C-alpha cells in the first residue's frame, strides 16, 4: 500500500481529529512566528507560557534571532531567521492530533551553546527519551535528531525539555526546525528476509539540513526512527539522503559515524543449521570523509570486514557474508571498525545500504520453508 493510501487510512482512523499532523514541519515548527515585543524582557527572554504562537513554554526560554551575539559567539540559525533557546529547566510543548496506534518520528535540530554536558528530554506521554549532546557531529554546530513514538491517544503533547541547571540560566541548547513524519512498519519484501533493508523508511529530513539526521541508540526496534532496525550501544548513527549525500541505492542510507560505539542491528527468523547469505553495499556519502574505512558485518558465529578506500566523493562496493544459523533468531549487525574524522574535526564513517538476506543452502533432505 502506498504512502498516500496509508495516510488516507490514518486520517480516517483519526475520526474527529481533523487536524491530524502530516509529514513536515509542525505548525510554527521553525519558530518564525515570534512573540510580541511586550512578551519579551531583556530583548530575548520570553514572558508568558503562550507568547510563542502554537507553542507552550515553561522555564527560562529565549527567542533567538540569527546573528544574535552571546559574548564573543555569534548564534547562527539553520532554518529561517529564528530559534528558541532552552535555559535552566526550560521546555517547549505542542499538542498534536495523531492517529491512535500509529508510529511517528519527530525530527528537530539542536545546537549546544555554553554548557559542555547538555542533554534533552523528549517525550510524548507516556513515552520519553534522553538525547545526550556531548558529541557534535556537524561542523556548523547544529545536529538534527530523530526520536520515535507510538501514539497512545488521538491527541498527544510533544515536549522538548532541558533538564540542566547551570550557573548561567541562559546556558542551554538552541532548538529549531521541529518536524514529524508518520512511519509505516515495513513488511518483508520478495526475496529479502530483512525488513527496510534499503533504509527507505525513516524520519523526516529537514529542508537544507545538509548534515543528515542522527538516530540515537534504542532498545526497541518497534519504536526506532528506522523501522525494523535497532541502534545498539552508546552512540548514534547518521541517516543520510540522496539530496545532500551520495547514496548507493534508492534515496536513503545509513552512515556509521561512531566506530564500534554504535551498531545497526536487525533480528530475523532463521532455522538452525541452514546457511544464509547477507549481501550489502559499503561506500562513502561524498561528505569529505577520506581514508581507509572498514565496515564490519556479523551474523551468528560469522563475520566479515569490508575495507573501503574512500576519496570522500562518493562510490561504493558490494560485500557478502555467508553464515550458518545456530538458533531460531539471528541478529544481523553492521558497525564501523574504527572512528573516522573529516578535516574539520567532525565524525564520519562508511555508509551501509541495500542490505539483503536470503536462504543460501539447506541441509539435504530438509524441505524448503515457503
UniProtKB/TrEMBL annotation:
Its main location: other. The lineage of its organism: Eukaryota, Viridiplantae, Streptophyta, Embryophyta, Tracheophyta. It comes from Zizania palustris. Residues 1-19 form the signal peptide. One of its GO terms (cellular component) is extracellular region. It holds the Pfam family DUF642. Residues 24-181, 193-355 form the DUF642 domain. It is found in: Cell envelope; Secreted. PROSITE patterns: PROKAR_LIPOPROTEIN (PS51257). InterPro entries: DGR2-like_dom, Pectin_Meth_Modulator. This is DUF642 domain-containing protein. Keywords: Glycoprotein, Secreted, Signal.
Amino acid at each position: 500500500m502506498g504512502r498516500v493510501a496509508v495516510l488516507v487510512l490514518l486520517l480516517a482512523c483519526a475520526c474527529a481529529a481533523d487536524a491530524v499532523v502530516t509529514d513536515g514541519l509542525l505548525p510554527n515548527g521553525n519558530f518564525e512566528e515570534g512573540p510580541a515585543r511586550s512578551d519579551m524582557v531583556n530583548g530575548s527572554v520570553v514572558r508568558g507560557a503562550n507568547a510563542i504562537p502554537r507553542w507552550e513554554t515553561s522555564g527560562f526560554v529565549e527567542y533567538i534571532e540569527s546573528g544574535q551575539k552571546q559574548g564573543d559567539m555569534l548564534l547562527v540559525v539553520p532554518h529561517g531567521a529564528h530559534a528558541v533557546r532552552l535555559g535552566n529547566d526550560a521546555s517547549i510543548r505542542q499538542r498534536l492530533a495523531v492517529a491512535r496506534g500509529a508510529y511517528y518520528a519527530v525530527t528537530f535540530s539542536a545546537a549546544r551553546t555554553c554548557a559542555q554536558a547538555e542533554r534533552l528530554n523528549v517525550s510524548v506521554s507516556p513515552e520519553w527519551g534522553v538525547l545526550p549532546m556531548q558529541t557534535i557531529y556537524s561542523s556548523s554546530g547544529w545536529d538534527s535528531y530523530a526520536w520515535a513514538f507510538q501514539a497512545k491517544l488521538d491527541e498527544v503533547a510533544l515536549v522538548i525539555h532541558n533538564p540542566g541547571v547551570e550557573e548561567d540560566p541562559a546556558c542551554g541548547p538552541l532548538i529549531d526546525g521541529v518536524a514529524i513524519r508518520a512511519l509505516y512498519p515495513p513488511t518483508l519484501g520478495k526475496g529479502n528476509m530483512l525488513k527496510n533493508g534499503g533504509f527507505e523508511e525513516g524520519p523526516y529530513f529537514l529542508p537544507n539540513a545538509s548534515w543528515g539526521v542522527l538516530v540515537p541508540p534504542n532498545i526497541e526496534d518497534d519504536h526506532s526512527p528506522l523501522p525494523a532496525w535497532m541502534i545498539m550501544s552508546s552512540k548514534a548513527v547518521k541517516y543520510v539522503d540522496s539530496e545532500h549525500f551520495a547514496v548507493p541505492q534508492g534515496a536513503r542510507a545509513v552512515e556509521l559515524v561512531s566506530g564500534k560505539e554504535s551498531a545497526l542491528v536487525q533480528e530475523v527468523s532463521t532455522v538452525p543449521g541452514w546457511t544464509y547469505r547477507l549481501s550489502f553495499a559499503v561506500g562513502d556519502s561524498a561528505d569529505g570523509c577520506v581514508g581507509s574505512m572498514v565496515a564490519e558485518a556479523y551474523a551468528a558465529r560469522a563475520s566479515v570486514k569490508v575495507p573501503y578506500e574512500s576519496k570522500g566523493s562518493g562510490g561504493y562496493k558490494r560485500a557478502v557474508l555467508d553464515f550458518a544459523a545456530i538458533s531460531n533468531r539471528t541478529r544481523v549487525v553492521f558497525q564501523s571498525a574504527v572512528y573516522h574524522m573529516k578535516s574539520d574535526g567532525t565524525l564520519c564513517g562508511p555508509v551501509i545500504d541495500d542490505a539483503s538476506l536470503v536462504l543460501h543452502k539447506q541441509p539435504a533432505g530438509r524441505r524448503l520453508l515457503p
